[in-house]
């Protein structure tokens, strides 16, 4: 049976009243069960592990079927509902920007990876898969969102899976030369388990390229608890540079390179992001109005000094 989409604000309201919201989940990296509350994000506790530095919300103790319901149509196309959900104003308008970003990252990874089978996890509407195909890769997509995965497959004709990484890893073990994901571990309730599936999906010597927001990056330190990666309830795990390394090494991957890469983003998405961070709630109507007059496809190239791209390799002799 198809479960209904859950709006973010609606979910947070019921979460604050739930018993689960008071339980401290174990740290996904070191198993510490006594992480103290670091701060409250829209009424949701953010814990900070004193042993490894990983930060996480209480949702890290949930199953992915809870979070799957966040990623319905309104997550990708928020313009009709409001500018305050921290969803995308219009994901569809980001096509060119996403394609450019993925090409920059594929180019970066291809110095280390054999060109061949490519899996993008969190492929959303499949723009990155299109870019990969243009660059000569054989792409497959995965996205937990039924809305996104269905529309990606329909629009591109590329194979897009949505069931679970566990199932995909059972069916396609050792098949991929390169696996990439951009801002994906942060959305996962159990990133260590999902990384084990990614490891199993990689061919021996295959490369994993992940890009995640980093709490002790320049932007993370500058903005503190107002950092733009603290988005409840969507973002669940928040990595420091060392905890990001640690979670990858723990599953047997060898770190090859770490870099802050340039990114391209639509002006309108940047306006919504900056407005949400800097302006009071009552200014949201003005942001909406401004977005209506800004050209949807105008984009900027910048380096946020916030998201770290890490390339890691599965040992060539691994099974
Ligand atoms: Zn820990």
What is the element layout, followed by pairings?
Layout: H1 8-17, E1 37-41, E2 44-48, E3 55-57, H2 64-68, H3 73-76, H4 95-109, E4 117-121, H5 127-134, E5 138-142, H6 146-156, E6 160-161, H7 165-171, E7 176-182, H8 191-201, E8 202-213, H9 218-223, E9 237-238, H10 241-250, E10 254-260, E11 263-266, H11 267-278, H12 284-293, E12 299-302, E13 307-313
Parallel strand pairs: 4-5, 4-7, 5-6, 7-8
Antiparallel strand pairs: 1-2, 2-3, 3-9, 8-13, 10-13, 11-12
The structure holds zinc ion (ZN).
Zinc ion (ZN) is lined by residues 27, 29-30, 32, 49, 51-52, 54.
Describe the structure.
With 319 residues, the chain is an alpha/beta fold. It has one domain (7-313): Vaccinia Virus protein VP39 (Rossmann fold), CATH 3.40.50. Helices cover 34% and strands 21% of the residues. The chain has helices at residues 8-17, 64-68, 73-76, 95-109, 127-134, 146-156, 165-171, 191-201, 218-223, 241-250, 267-278, 284-293; strands at 37-41, 44-48, 55-57, 117-121, 138-142, 160-161, 176-182, 202-213, 237-238, 254-260, 263-266, 299-302, 307-313. α5 links the parallel β4 (117-121) and β5 (138-142). The longest helix is centred in the first third of the chain and has 15 residues, at 95-109. The chain starts with 7 loop residues before the first helix and ends in a 6-residue tail after the last strand. The structure holds zinc ion. Zinc ion binds next to loops.
